[in-house]
Amino acid sequence: MSDDQTPSVKLSDKQAGDSHESGAPWRNFYGRFKGKTLKPNQKVYLDQDLAALSPGAVGWEENPNRTNLDLQALFGGRDVWLEVGFGGGEHLVHQAIANPDVGIIGAEPFINGVATLLGKIRHSKCDNIAVHPGDARDLMDVLPEASISRAFLLYPDPWPKNRHHRRRFVTQEHLLPLAQVLKPGAIFRVATDIPDYVRQTLVEVPKAGFERLTVEGEDWHHPWSDWLSTRYEIKALREGRTPHYLTFKRL
Ligand SMILES: C[S@@+](CC[C@H](N)C(=O)[O-])C[C@H]1O[C@@H](n2cnc3c(N)ncnc32)[C@H](O)[C@@H]1O
User: Residue 30: exposed, middle, or buried by beta-carbon count in 10 A (0-12, 13-18, 19+)?
Assistant: First the structure.
């Protein structure tokens, strides 16, 4: 998203209930798909590596019947984790290296971020990552029910204006599908530097079938023991904002 939170792309103004020719529902997406021009090596990563890292058929054009992904074929029975909006992918690769027995799927529509992640995957040589270069909602449509054991939502777009709060990821439109694909007992981590995002998260996430594990105020300023600061967090700290780390358990 642009720094002033002005949407650079608004995909559609259609009302919910309408659908594309492929059957895909109209889903407004207010973030951005592309930023500055890709560097030549980033184009190479996208051309050469992205297809091989696909989790399977996610898009409506290629999977109009919304057949579930075959996670067994993808990761050979490993536990599967999900990172929504991985940005430049530093946290995702960090977790993949630290947890070789886990497969991690990342979803990120911003193609410059995807290209940055691909460069990191090349250099790390980890083989336990799959990448969906698009909206996490399309991915959650085709993840089997109760298939994911951990999910990360790290510094989601803050949408600070009151009238934009309904665009936040911590709304039932996003949280109910997330709850559906998480296993009972799965952990859901949310990091944010925006106090009002904390407020909305604490209200909306439990409504979607989660129990809060973080104790209010006490431990929510302490990062998780396996945490790696993301690019967005470094910027937030530089600008004097305070991180909050919230942990939930799927009931
Ligand atoms: C503020 S950035 C934070 C990026 C990264 N997690 C970090 O901490 O540096 C939020 C990211 O979420 C992505 N995003 C927004 N809506 C999304 C969606 N529906 N599915 C997946 N990613 C999304 C944006 O493209 C953006 O890269």
Answer: middle
* Marked catalytic residue, from 135, 138, 141, 157: 157
The correct CATH number of 42-250 out of 3.40.50.2300, 3.30.360.10, 3.20.20.60, 3.40.50.150 is: 3.40.50.150
226 annotated active-site: no
- Per-residue pLDDT of 167-183, as tens digits, reads 999 999 999 999 999 99
pTM exceeding the 0.90 threshold for the entire prediction: yes
Which contiguous run of DSSP H or E holds residue 139?
helix 136-141
Q: 157 in ligand 1 pocket by Cβ < 6 Å?
A: yes
pLDDT tens by residue, 122-167: 999 899 999 999 999 999 999 999 999 999 999 999 999 999 999 9
Q: Is 85 in the pocket of ligand 1 (CB under 6 A)?
A: yes
Residue nearest to atom 7 of ligand 1 (CA): 232
Pocket perturbation via mutation, ligand 1, pick of 110, 153, 237 by most ligand atoms within 8 A of CB:
110
